[in-house]
Amino acid sequence: MYILVIIDAFTKFISIRPGRDTKTTTTIRVLKDFFSYFGAPTRLITDRGTCFTSSKFKTFVEDSRIKHVLNAVATPRANGQVERFNRTISEALSAKCHDKNDNTWDEYVSDVQLGLNTSVNKSTGKSPSELLFGYNVKTVSENILGDIINTTTDRISGDELINLRNESMHKIEKQQNLAKHRYDKHRKLATKYNIGDLVRLERTTFDKDRIGKSKKLMAKFHGPYKIVKILPNDRFLVEDTPITRKKGKKYENVVSIDKIHPWLNFKSLDSENDSDGNDKSDTKDKSDSENDSDGNDKSE
């Protein structure tokens, strides 16, 4: 069994859908069902799973007029919201299945979804359901307490809801700036690359014959690959070269700057050459001065 997680980037409203496989047909069916409730988005950010890179899915997003953004290879932080929720969902389902049959985990998915959508988000200061619907959706425990306390639900509407969403937007921007500041403090300047540069890539996938075997002695990088396009946000479109091409099939992919390194680094070679040149010059100057000294001795 698998889980497809859909998150609204602004309100953080989440939809968790269990499924038996990750085929393109299954994924499209789940998304269509989600769109029937909330409408089609203008932009969809996904990883590079085969269900999202297939020609059938490409046709689906084009027909729906959705801009599809694929993450760079082996860069889960590019879709950090989903990755963070994936960990939370796993921990919540693990707690729900404690002392129970592990095969029944899908029965608790809706409980976890409701809990996340009614919990106050740190970035927005509000729950996802309140930002989306204008009121907090009740949980089962709140219904039980409601019978005792006899409370009523106040729905936010009109300008008040707009102000609430604007306030949450400013809080999100503040959190993003703080996160960027913390990240930039420990980040060095990125290497500059140009179109046509040869680079080596960090190895993130392994051949089938290496599965289950030690990878300690395997090369950490492979290449060379050539940069064919420079993209925004330190992303590069690379393609293989005749050396790395397999079965004559051309390979292209988007990689982030932290996953690539220069194929050959000439800076160290230049510094060594400069050092050798200086040593030779020093030796020559020394021999010349010794000759001049000998000449002076003779003249005396």
UniProtKB/TrEMBL annotation:
Bias-annotated ranges (Basic and acidic residues): 277-300
Domain of life where this protein originates: Eukaryota
GO MF annotations, alphabetized: nucleic acid binding
Residues that span the membrane, as ranges: none
Pfam families with a match to the protein in the record: rve (PF00665)
Domain Integrase catalytic: 1-136
Database matches in InterPro entries: Integrase_cat-core, Retrovirus_Pol_polyprotein, RNaseH-like_sf, RNaseH_sf
GO biological process: DNA integration
PROSITE patterns, per database record: INTEGRASE
Organism of provenance: Spodoptera litura (Asian cotton leafworm)
Disordered, as annotated region: 267-300
Protein name per the record: Uncharacterized protein K02A2.6-like
